[in-house]
Every structure is written in C-alpha cells, then in structure tokens.
Fold:
Amino acid sequence: MGRDKKNPKPLDAAAFNTLVKTAAEVRRRHEQQLQATLPRAHRGTGPAGRVRVTFDIVADEDAPMPC
Structure:
C-alpha cells in the first residue's frame, strides 16, 4: 500500500536515521552560509608597517536562492 496524508507509512529505523542525517546536513550548510556572510579581517606586517585588511562579503544577485 502506498502512502497518503491520513495514514502515512511508518518510517523504519534506517529511513528515520537518513531523515535525521539529511536535516542535520541542511542545518549545517545554512550555518556555514551564514558564517560566510560575516565580515573578515586579517592583520599583517608589511614593508610600510602594520596592515589590516577587512573583507565584506556580499551575496551575488545572480546566485540562486537557497532552499
């Protein structure tokens, strides 16, 4: 028998573990994307003295929207 909205087929242990793993991966990817949007700063010493470089990461307008 197939699945329907009123009486869905129950998940076995392997299917449930796969569902949890997939959800955790999606959450991890979202966290990584959020972390990547934060500004980055690097410090160094050059011939002219101390240098601080700040990078502001801007989302690409042509990139597809995440799920």
